[in-house]
Structures are given as structure tokens and as C-alpha cells.
Design goal:
Residues about 1-25 have low confidence and may be disordered. The chain is built from 2 helices and 4 strands, in the order E-E-H-E-H-E. The protein is an alpha+beta fold. Strands 1-2 form a two-stranded antiparallel sheet. Helix content is about 35%, strand content about 25%. The protein has one domain. A hairpin with a 5-residue loop joins strand 1 and strand 2.
Length: about 90
């Protein structure tokens, strides 16, 4: 069995009138699997990012659905947009 990991990324953009656009990309990594220390480091990093996102949401910040839709639609094009970051205070 070859060393490496195969991952699949599936993005679905639900559009008006129930139209669904799906883009799937499969990538095979040829690097060896991560060590336990690397795994623990990655999991810690991921936990920190999740905590930051939850704090941002709790503070009332979000990216608009229009920004997210435009970003998703730009993926796979010659001019992909940057990831939309939460910067709008949620109306209360």
C-alpha cells in the first residue's frame, strides 16, 4: 500500500430556486503520514482556530451570505476571491 493520504473536498453552493452547484476535488498527498507529535500540534492549532471563530460569532461578527456566495463562485476561476472574513456586526 503506498504511503500517503487521499482527501476529497466537496463544496456545495445552494442557490436560488433550489439549484445546487457542487465542485469536488480529489488530491493525493505523497508525503508520509504525520507523526503523533505533528498530529497533536495540528489538533491544537485547529482547536485554537475554532475557539477564535466561536468568539468572533459570540461577539456578533459575520461575513454576509453574498460575500460567501461570491467567494464560492470564484473558486476554480482565474481570479479567485480572498476568503471572506467576519467584519460586519450582527444587527441586534
Amino acid at each position: 500500500m503506498p504511503t500517503g493520504v487521499t482527501t476529497t473536498l466537496a463544496l456545495q453552493n445552494y442557490r436560488d430556486l433550489g439549484y445546487v452547484h457542487a465542485m469536488t476535488q480529489t488530491t493525493t498527498l505523497t508525503e508520509p503520514a504525520e507523526t503523533e507529535a505533528e498530529r497533536q500540534s495540528r489538533l491544537g492549532w485547529e482547536a485554537e482556530r475554532i475557539a477564535e471563530a466561536r468568539a468572533s460569532i459570540a461577539a456578533g461578527y459575520y461575513a454576509t451570505s453574498a460575500e460567501v456566495k461570491a467567494w464560492i463562485d470564484s473558486l476554480g476561476t482565474d481570479n479567485p476571491l480572498p476568503v471572506p472574513y467576519p467584519r460586519h456586526p450582527r444587527p441586534r
